[in-house]
Amino acid sequence: MVIKSLRSLFALMLLVCGMGLSATAFAADQQSSQQQATAQTSEADLWRAVKSGEAGYTTAKGGERGVLINVTGEQGREIRNKYVTPVMGIAVVGVFGAFLLFYFVNGPARLNDGFSGKMVFRWSKADLILHWCVAISCLTLIFTGLNIMLGKHVLQPMVGEGSGIWASLIYGSKTIHDWVGPFFIVCWAILVVKWMPHQMLKGYDFKWFLTVGGYFNVGPLKGKHADSGFANAGEKAWFWTLAIFGLFIAISGVMMVLPGLDLPREASMAALLVHGVSAILIIAFTIVHIWMATVLGEGGMECMVSGYCDENWAMQHHNLWYDEIKANGTLKYRE
Fold this sequence. Notes:
The chain is an all-alpha fold. The protein is built from 11 helices and 2 strands; from the N terminus they run H-H-E-H-H-H-H-H-H-H-E-H-H. Strands 1-2 form a two-stranded antiparallel sheet. The relative contact order is 0.12.
């Protein structure tokens, strides 16, 4: 009887101990699962914060040193690749193609009375030097900039990525772009200040736009010429485009070229986008300016080569200026 009681008591103790051990093991397993879940949640929260651009702690020095992923920079890169680069390509091909088509349909604008043979003084040697300094540096920046922006879509497939030619083209374009930029900025600033008095818009300039400067040889606008002063409305539009967006290009270019400024990524990306958009507008207007000053108009290019223009050209395209210098006695012919 006593032995049976002892056996029952021992069995009860084993049962109680087993239940205790099971409860302890269950609690340990539950705690471990909670720790793993917490760790996973913490890692997810941390990665979510990193991807959102949240700053952390680091002993490194420099701007935005605590930001592992810059969201603004990534968004700016997407805008540049998705919008700015394609629009730049469209601007180059589209504007050039439109004027080429216009030339084949309309032809060049001829002088109504032909060339007189009398050359009227229009530009000083200083103005000619200044014009060509701006023109050459601007065209250099345009071609190198186009290679930097569009070269991988146009030139790289032609020369091959692994040949070394493409790397040399990009490195050369970047180097030339960076060194010519300051020269352009200085010449641009002098040109804007020196030429601004002749570029103020007048009431008659709007009529010039309505007749497109008399460049049409066909249709209802054929032979119609609006009044123009020293600079016509088209030249004024080109000047103010160069003045305003040249300023944007100058500021944004300096921001990108000088790493010592230690700018935030947002400012750097904004500078890159402003630089690209401004370049698109200047490129488009440059193509228009070159077409209208050379192929589409007789006698226009001579002005920026010798500084003199044909008298019939002056009377037809800049009649108010011609009347003014004739009236005040400043009309000067080339000897």
